[in-house]
Each structure stands twice: as structure tokens, then as C-alpha cells.
Amino acid sequence: MVVQQHGHSARRAAAAAVALAGVVTGAAGCGGGAEAGDRNGDPATAVRDAPDRLIREGSSEARTSMQMASGGTRVTIRGEGVYDYRAGLGQLRVQLPQDAAGAQEHRPITELLAPGALYMKNRGAGVPDDKWVRVDTTTLNDGNLVTGGATDPLAAAELLRGAREVTYGGESDVAGVPTRHYKGNVDLGAAAKAASKGNRRALAAAAKGFGTSPVPFDVYLDDDGLIRRITLRFSFSDDQRGGQRKKNVAVASTTLLHGFGKPAKVRLPDKKDIFAGQVAEK
Predict the structure, then answer these.
(1) Is 216:165 a contact under the CB 8 Å cutoff?
(2) Distance between CA atoms of 25 and 28, rounded to whole angstroms?
(3) Residue 117 CB neighbour total at 10 angstroms
(4) Phi and psi (nearest 5°) for 256?
(5) Given the DSSP bridges, would you call strands 163-174 and 227-238 parallel, antiparallel or unpaired?
């Protein structure tokens, strides 16, 4: 995926985020009613109301899994952390897979998610251990839905505001919790227009970058209308390597939410702790 940045320093910072996406190419309230996922309610309403229900709940723990497939190669990036939905802030510990040649495991990357920004520690050669790399997600042409190796949990939820062709898929169990399964497609343009202020510009960038192709989703809501699991399926052509044939990349991003209401304290880095030098992709 091509990442478009404005300014020299922004391009350098974005290289750290691009490296995550490059893993693929290099390896080649509550209660009843529709809001609560009532099987007799309107499926589209239940799904589109889910982001607001999540924000009212306040916070949760999260686990993420992003599986990328290109040709015959599949890699999975996993993350785990917490999220404050009211503040739009999250923290994930992201583990990259081994290199294609079976090289030693990468150090886990700490990611801080904020409106319009992604902060990463332990990402990129030449970055001191005590420094963070900051990327403006509104300048990434996927809005950081894919590039960071984990879809921001609130952004994933807000995509449901653009849900279309929603159908009820029956009851299911997610980590021991009874849920109702819904499936459909996301209109990225509609989701961006309906998103909260913090996510609007990033999702607008994603809508432009991915074009008009719908994004298929599966979401599982519990009896309180809370998202317990959401899977989004993205696809794009990787053309960031000039002179090489484009590769079709399929990405399945899954987020599982649990531990609702637990404190999710996320502190963003001070300006002095943000790396301003050259970031290597490998």
C-alpha cells in the first residue's frame, strides 16, 4: 500500500508504519430493543448503534489479530491492550511474526492510538529505546485501518456507522458470552461522514484510499448491544515497490473486546520523547 505523507519529517515517520504493512509484501443504554441486538429488531439499526453503545460503556480490554495474505503467503500480527472509548485513546502491545527466513522474533511494539495519530515504540532501526515514532494517521491512505498492524478498536466500531446490506446470522458464543451475529458491508464514505470528530479525517482518508469497494464485516453483539467481536476484510493492490508487478493483498482484521468498564489509562508521550530523526524500515 502506498502511504502518502506531506513534508519530509512526516515521510520519515511514516516509514515506521509502512514497515508493518510491508510484512505481507516482504514475506509474500442497555436492555432490550434493536440496540441490544434483539433478533426481532432491525439488524442495520442494531449494528449502526453499536459504536455509540461502546462509547457510553467507556472502556474495555482488547485483543487484535490481523491476518494478511498475498499469493501463497499468510502472516498474522497480534495485539493486546486497553481502550478508553470516550477519550478515543488506546494502548496495544503488538507482536510481529517471524521473518520469512525464520529470523529471530521481533521485539513487541508498543502502540498508542489517539485521534489522528499513532505512536510507536520499538519500531524502526536507529530509533532510541526511549523514543516514540509519531505518524499522522490522517495522511495514511488507509487511515491506519491496516498499516499499524492492528485496527484501532474505536475506528473498527465506527466503521459500522456505514453498515449496509446487514443481515442477522443467528446466535453464537464469543469467549463464553452469548451473542447475536450480524454480517454485511461497510460503505467507507458513509462511515467517515457519520464518524465522531476524532476519527472522521482518518476514515475519510481510508475511504479515498480504498475507493468505492465495500468492506465486508461480521460483528457479534451481546445482550447489552456491546461489540464482543468484529472482523473486517480489506483488500488492496500493493504497488509501493516500483518496477514490480502489483500484488493483491487480503487483510482480515479481528478485534475482540472484553473486560468492559476496567480502567484504561493511556498517557501520550511528551514532545521531547518523540523521535525526530531518520527512521529505517528494517
Answers:
(1) no
(2) 5
(3) 15
(4) -110, 130
(5) unpaired
Give pLDDT tens digits for 20-39: 555 544 443 333 334 444 45
Helix segments in the chain, DSSP class H: 8-27, 43-57, 153-158, 188-194, 197-210
DSSP 99: P
**Cell 536507529 belongs to which residue?**
126
SS3 category, 39: coil
Strand partners, 168: 182
First to last CA, the chain: 17
**Amino acid letter for position 210:** F
> How far is 275 from 15, CA to CA, in rounded Å?
13
For residues 139 and 119, give the distance between their C-alpha atoms in angstroms, rounded to a whole number: 14
What pTM was computed for the model?
A: 0.82
pLDDT (tens digit per residue) in 151-195 = 999 999 999 999 999 999 999 999 999 999 999 999 999 999 999
Give the cell for residue 154: 474505536
